[in-house]
Amino acid sequence: VKVKIPFGNKYLDAIFSVPEKKSTYGVILTHGAGGDMNFPHLVSLAAYLASHGVLCLRFTCKGLNIAYRTKAFKTVVEYLKLSDDYKLSGVFLAGRSMGSRAAASVVRHLSQEDDDDFIQGLVCLSYPLHRPKLQSKLRDEDLLFIRCPVLFISGSADEMCEKQLLEGVASKMKAPQKIHWIDKANHGMAVKGRTTDDVMEEINAQVFSWLRENIELEHK
């Protein structure tokens, strides 16, 4: 279902992937610095989640300013929260690369502002922890303040997220977190000798099983 979400004096293009049965939880998903919501990895993940009973709303926000991207993501969260068509108990925020930084920023700010538990967790695909070859400056400030569960899926050869550095940040986090490494994948999740579909199957299954665990924990 295509929708246009009001954002200031503009609109954000977005698409709902809707499961057959009514979903109580949803995922909001956005893209990295390049591309848009039709980036193949996002389309694949959204379709997988919907086919497994989880509503997925993915949106496009062009713009390389992280504050602007964060503001847009926040608007989409509010839109879904107030939606009459899809009454959800909670959402997980997810993004790829720069989109995951925006998602982390929103989770941090919203959790400090309201205690209504609408945001259940954060999924970071290829989180850009540092610029290539600039490991001294880590983009970890939002991650250290988050309290809800966080899943990282990163390539072990990601030039923007060195393995030891992410593991170091994870060990300092207050939030329950899990890292799944895609062996030999780069920042774009490409792996020599594996097809994109094969890699996406691994990513999608990891995201879904982690969501399911966290939704079950919530219900206990």
Please give the structural blueprint:
Layout: E1 2-7, E2 10-17, E3 25-30, H1 40-51, E4 55-59, H2 66-81, E5 90-96, H3 98-113, E6 119-125, E7 150-155, H4 163-172, E8 177-182, H5 196-219
Parallel strand pairs: 3-4, 3-5, 5-6, 6-7, 7-8
Antiparallel strand pairs: 1-2, 2-4
Summarize the structure in words:
- Residues 27-209 form the KANL3/Tex30 alpha/beta hydrolase-like domain.
- Pfam families: Abhydrolase_11.
- This is TEX30 protein.
- The protein has five helices and eight strands, in the order E-E-E-H-E-H-E-H-E-E-H-E-H.
- Helix content is 35%, strand content 23%.
- It has helices spanning 40-51, 66-81, 98-113, 163-172, 196-219; strands at residues 2-7, 10-17, 25-30, 55-59, 90-96, 119-125, 150-155, 177-182.
- Helix 4 links the parallel strand 7 and strand 8 (177-182).
- An eight-stranded mixed sheet has the order 1-2-4-3-5-6-7-8, sandwiched between helices.
- By secondary structure, the chain is of the alpha/beta class.
- It has a single domain, classed as 3-Layer(aba) Sandwich (Rossmann fold).
- The longest helix has 24 residues, at 196-219.
- The termini are far apart.
- Helix 1 crosses helix 5 and helix 2 (66-81) crosses helix 3.
